[in-house]
Amino acid sequence: MASNKGHEALNAYCEEIQKIVSCITNEVWYCSSSERDRLNFSIGSGFFRVTCEDNRYLHIDINQEIEDPKTSGTVTTKYYLYSVADADGKDLVGFHFHPDLTEDPILYPHVHAYANQDPRYLSLNLHRKHIPSGRVALEDVIRWLITELKIKPRRDDWDEVLTKAKESFLEIRSWA
Amino acid sequence: MSTVLDGNTESKVKFLNDEESVERFDKQVRNLLGISAEDFLARRAKGEYKDACEDSRVLKLLMMVPKSLADRGVK
């Protein structure tokens, strides 16, 4: 039945996102109905702090919006927003997908480089530009934070967790 | 009532009811922008948040507007 299938799909989704973010935080995911009649998932109170290997701080924010699987029977990501900000909360990098957001409907997944303090970027207004990225998996963002931005992982098995989650994601995703 | 779905890790998923969603949204708007949810939605209605990608805090809040708040006509 669609409702049982939808319930199972939602449970599986919740289990996956919990595992993925547990690699860097133990913040709680919150789910609420969005004005688009979808389920909005976001973490903690917004922009949780993480520590890097050199003891610098960064702020991370993670949001996803999915079609309600109780209706469709499957989980489909409609929006995502993964943000990296510096210790003062100023934006550094953003991974975005929000094709039907009224205020800023960009049809393709994109990246923002908030490098507007560098005059070369400022002259291009690069922070306002939507750099095409293809769909970026949350697993890849977390891996990037750990391996390149050197955020301290919270669990020893983060590599295995992210690898398994990515394999599962590649099997079930409906768009790329 | 909200429910908490425990997983295999320390992280959890908490499902919010309408009232909790509005309360959390208001707290986030105040925390991130220093204004109320109603003020945020009024500014949005005036078109102040075009090019939302410029500020990830604004974009996040635009994504989060709860259905129950939008249904009240506060848009």
Any overview of this molecule?
The complex is a heterodimer of chains A (176) and B (75). Chain A is α+β, with helices and mostly antiparallel strands. Chain A is built from five helices and eight strands; from the N terminus they run αββββαβββαβαα. In chain A, strands 1, 2, 3, 4, 5, 6, 7 and 8 form an eight-stranded antiparallel β-sheet that branches. Chain B has one domain (17-71). Helix content of chain B is 52%, strand content 11%. In chain B, α1 runs antiparallel to α3. The radius of gyration of chain B is 14 Å and the shape is globular. In chain B, 40% of the residues are buried. Chain A binds chain B through residues 11, 14-15, 17-19, 21-22, 25-37, 40-42, 45-47, 61, 63, 65, 79, 81, 83, 85, 91, 94, 96, 98, 101-104, 106, 112, 127-128, 130, 155, and chain B through 5, 7-16, 18, 20-21, 24-25, 27-28, 31-32, 44, 49-57, 59-60, 62-71. β1 (29-33) of chain A pairs parallel with β2 of chain B, so a sheet runs across the interface.
Topology of this protein?
The complex is a heterodimer of chains A (176) and B (75).
Chain A: H1 2-21, E1 29-33, E2 39-43, E3 48-51, E4 57-66, H2 69-72, E5 77-85, E6 91-98, E7 106-113, H3 119-122, E8 131-132, H4 138-147, H5 158-172
Chain B: E1 3-6, E2 12-15, H1 18-33, H2 37-45, H3 56-64, H4 67-71
Antiparallel strand pairs in B: 1-2
Helix pairs in contact in B: 1-3
